[in-house]
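ok so for the tutorial part 2 we go from a plain amino acid sequence to predicted structure tokens. step 1 is just haveing the sequence, like this:
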Amino acid sequence: MPKHATPKQKLSKIRTKNRYGSFKRKVLTKLSNLISIADCKSCGAKKRNHHVCEECGQYRGKQVIDKQKKIDKITTIKA
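step 2 — the prediction. this is what the tokens look like for a chain of 79 residues:
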């Protein structure tokens, strides 16, 4: 079986951090180009294009999700 390569010297922490930082920067730029974000016309919050607004629940001027309605949680355990 072939032997695995072993490092000849210890790598410093900054080399590892720089390598991860450049990878992270590349990934974030790719994602920012893929996802387009716009302002909601009704409430002005940031939302993804072609998606329902998370703040007000409207899509293309129509109320899709009722955000005013509060859902009561069951706090008692029925035996």
